[in-house]
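tool_call predict_complex ligand=zinc ion
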Amino acid sequence: MRRRTFLQGTAGGLGAWAGWREDLLNARPSGVFTNPPPPATFASDGYKPPEWLHYTQAVYFDGYSPPLYPHMKDFDARRLVEVVTELGGNMLRFQPIGYRAYYPTQSFPLHDELGSRDLIDEVARECRGAGVHLYCYANYGMGLMLEPEFLKANPRFNDWLLRDPDGKPYGLYSHYGWMTTPRMICLTGDVYRSALRQVAREFCAHDMDGMYFDSPSEFTYTGICFCADCRRNFKKFTGMDMDRLRDFGTRPGLNSNPASFPPDADMEALQAWYAWADQLVQEDLLDLRKIIHGSGKFMMCHNGATWHGNSLLLQYRIPDGFMVEASREVHDRLMTGMKGASMARPYRKVAQMYLGSYAISWFGEPPHGSHWTTHNTNLEDGDEILMEGFTNLACGNTPIYATANRVYFKIGSGSTQPARDVFEFMRRIEPIHKDSVPMPYVSLVPTWGALQLWRNRQVSYNWPVMTQAMGLAMLDERISVDVNASTEISEEWLAGQKVIALCGASGVSEHNAAQLTGWVAAGGGLLATYDTGLYNGSGQLRKDGGALKQVLGVEMKGTPLGSQPECYYRVKENHPALGNHAAGAIVEGDNQIVPIATVGDATVLAEAWSMGSDEVRGPAIVANQYGKGRAIYISGSLEANYVGDGVKSVRRLLGSIVQYLGGGAPQPFRLKAPRGVYGVLRRSPHGDLALWVLANVGFKDAASGRMRQEYVPVNGVEVAIRIPDGKEAKGMMLLRAGVPAASFRVEDGYALATIPRLHIAEVVHLALRT
Ligand SMILES: [Zn+2]
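tool_result ok
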């Protein structure tokens, strides 16, 4: 196929949604593009993935490590599929390409031990024999082993190398510690992009069920490429000369810290580069989807880069499902997993989440240096795997075990039991759990606009810190919580919400602001903290007091004041939102606040006070009535404090604010157990309720990595699930123990039960009748 003809087919243009059109067009540098393509919402192409894909027990086999790399000659497909079965899996993610291809291909560097073998065929045969579904991994721009001697023998791959402004190859990908360091590749050039499509065609000619791409929009895998193709195509798309990007020329890993960009670097040109690169990702994914769906197979992607401000907007809607990157800490895993689930749910996509890890030092194994060395064949599993599996399920995601390589070699004492337990439990509860939905009292909304602050070299704390911190406070308060990305705020979703929290959601689009304003006016309860809405949907500072000025009753006067030590919040008046904090009470405050003035009838409930200078820095907590609804604004971030120090009064304060915003509606569940025990409430498609109780207790060294510690059992955990109006409680079951809750009784509208011994997880099922 000729190199440049394949890209000419139109791939985008599936229709635009007015709200996102406005935001995306605003986000583009002005006056640069002569003909910007319309933002797409990525409607379905009509393909329907097999129903079983929505509820699989998946196992991942890594292809960057033994038994495939560096040597593949001893690879045994039968042993691999045995491992999948041993783990209780029914679907395998196999990796036919890593640094090299393990099947005959025209388009990718071949493994020199391949001979006449085709590992896709070998694995497919064994999978079919064992009744195991199979889909295959392809990388999307990851670094590759392109050693000088290999390039000498295979000169056509010279065109894959990332090029600096002078045309010289640059960029090493130092993550994996094999014999040579992988080279970064030109992901934006025609040659590699053509190869990607060819790989998809070749994979799909095999007897397997689907394809997986790792990882679209992940620009940290590469850098700006100045090869001839890229120079020409960039100019064509943006009208700019690529030399404007010289200052970024040898800075691979572009996503990293925008505050570290060179002071004189051309940010307008960088924004144009991302707009162009995203357009290429869009063309790639839509073309790949066409190839894959055209052959009757499903498509999955890694979504680790989906929630980056410079990624392709809404790219997670293109494939049939995606893999949510794992987290180490349980509360972080819950928040990240719930966010992923919220992106998948409206389109009934699949959200998978790692169970275990694919590279141990990522989880803190003593690294002996800086290498992110693979250790996929590492030793035995234990309690952590159980906890991760139940946590993934509680989010509504399907676990994917990583990695089968560990079990393949029978190293250490080995153990497949924890993964088996998770998968067996998953199978057992399918009628209750599949397609169940969360039942939040408060929903946390990370905004796409907050991610756009990079355009001004600024860092937003909305997602990685404040939203997750608020989640932890709610878990500790036993307030039912969910996470929903701002890209998925629909009228239907809003109608089901009691309380929404925007935690340092710096950028809020006009579209989202209008939605939220209407929802509060109709009776919703909104919490906003710190710089929420100080910036617009494209990350530009607003001069009009903020996107939510009327709703919050707060006019923002500018960017946050400089940090001062020893700042506290001093309560000005008694108010139900403050719980038992009466006028005169002093609570922990934020050292950094946004300067504001109140608007209309809004009331200052507390002021920000600097102890050292005895200075009142401004209002700290403001309450406002808006239409039939309520709003509370906090000018700092109490939640960010909470994740750092766990102070009880801060948690209680955040809890009472959320309950006040919920108009005093009763909590969907109650839980009496030591802190660290988290509850997640879900409703099954036929209306029953299930409370997932995760006992994250006795595991305190998480920050030092995967320590294989044991969790401590908790005795006599009392739970109560509120019986929905018009329903009657039929009975309660402890699903993991497989026994009826002996102490089941009904009291004041709640169904009560005791979990006699809670170790890691239990799911309390409340059967209802009308
Ligand atoms: Zn290039």
